[in-house]
Amino acid sequence: MPTSISSLNSLNVYLVGGAVRDGLLGREIVERDYLVVGATVQQMLDLGFIQVGKDFPVFLHPKTKEEYALARTERKQGKGYTGFVCYAEPDVSIEDDLRRRDLTVNAMAQNEQGHIIDPYNGQQDLHNRVLRHVSSAFAEDPLRVLRVARFAARYHYLGFNIAPETLTLMAQMASQGELNNLSSDRLWKEFSRALGETHPEVFIEALRTTGALKHIWPSLDKLWGVPNPEAHHGEIDSGVHTLMVLQQSVKLSNHTAVRFAALCHDLGKGLTPKSQWPKHHGHEKSGLPLVTEICDKLNVPNVCKRIALHVCEYHLHCHRAFDLNPKTLLKLFNSLDVWRKGDEFELFLLACHADATGRLGQENSPYEQANYLRELVSACKQVNPRVFVEKGLKGIEIKEAITQQRLDIIKQIKSISDT
To answer: CA-CA distance, 38 to 204, in Å (whole number)?
Structure first.
């Protein structure tokens, strides 16, 4: 028998979390989550809701398919972000449920009449542009360190900052090793979402300030305090440069691989002996194991890993494109597999462009190297293997003929650009 609208309306339902927060900020509401107070699991099932939560009583609305969760409290039992015991009975109040949430700006609810339930002063913190934890229970979930850093990145454009006492608590959580209990998938989910914001550098800075970056990504954290030659890097510091590159990557692309590569491109500089500072000979190759290490730790998608490795190894090749000889250029193209992965070649160029302009005073400089390499690859792709087959060439002969013709094309274009 179909569930009636009147039956569904009998539930005590509140709009909660991000939808309330973003509504008050005038931001677009991407998704709506609802909280049901005073109901049981069986009541929800009887009304036609579909239970989807394994650990928590979460349901899909029978018609809209939006998420509805029973009000609950949580008690820490074990390590990490999964070690919680959930209590979701009808006696759990709206205030009880909101108390378990991470930030005051996320601990508000709105009833069907539009009234805001705000027991922890979230509206005041919204007005003051403060990200503040609701209670000491915040420390029970290490994932919240990354979530708060991500919120700081998302709302940076509105002037939001993390409350000093929340930064202190995040630092305590990091120092106690709680972040080591987070899974690779959860870490990457937060990193990738943060990289998708307009100010992902704020995310990294928040993690660095609290000491969390040192635990999650030590080879990146190590870049701060490592100098570069002033002639090429007015900003001097490698860590500062890396975040400037990240900022530039945001301007150039919304692709996660480009932004992730921005963070990875200079990891090798953290291995340079101090006696060699501020030069970093060979940092491209020495950084490759560090890129692989963080990709494995975060379970980074393959395309992001490939782009990060290529940018780490070949960004200086890209910067010096006009000075490279034809054989080196063709070797670069083969290493990047531009013949089969043209889309990834474009991501590589964008990341290198970000590196070139992620320097003090160079932010708006042109990057003609990218257009030059695009032109060379486009021309080389016109070489048709069928021509050599029709001439009777076979196997290795065809490969050699293709290579030679590509080299001739590169020489021809290079000679024109050099004049």
So the answer is: 41
Cβ-Cβ contacts under 8 Å for 1 (sequence gap 6 or more): none
**Residue in 171, 166, 161, 269 with CA at minimum distance from that of residue 214:** 171
The token pair at 113 is 């009449």
Cα–Cα distance for residue pair 55/60, rounded to 1 Å: 15
Res 19: pLDDT: 95
Tell me which residue has tokens 């990200």. 131
Closest of 324, 312, 377 to residue 351, by C-alpha: 312
CB-count exposure of residue 199 (10 Å: 0-12, 13-18, 19+): middle
> Could you tell me the pLDDT band of residue 167, with boundaries at 50, 70 and 90?
very high
What are the tens digits of pLDDT across the range 240-286? 999 999 999 999 999 999 999 999 999 999 999 999 999 999 999 99
Secondary structure of residue 14 in the 3-state scheme: strand
What letter represents residue 164's amino acid?
P
User: What is the H or E stretch that residue 99 is in?
Assistant: helix 94-99
Please give the Cα distance from 59 to 346 (Å, whole number): 43
Q: Residue holding tokens 């963070």? A: 263
d(CA 146, CA 78): 20
DSSP letter assigned to residue 6: H
User: What's 70's DSSP letter?
Assistant: E
List, in order, residues 6 or more apart from 339 with CB less than 8 Å away: 333, 381
Please name the residue that has the structure tokens 């909660």.
Answer: 16
Residue in the structure block whose two tokens are 């701060």? 224
Distance, CA of 238 to CA of 229 (rounded, Å): 10
Tokens, residue 309: 């490795």
Distance CA 305, CA 310 (A): 9
- Length in residues, the chain: 419
Query: Is residue 131 helix, strand or coil?
Result: strand
Tokens of 8: 């569904």
Q: Which residue has the tokens 């305590």?
A: 172
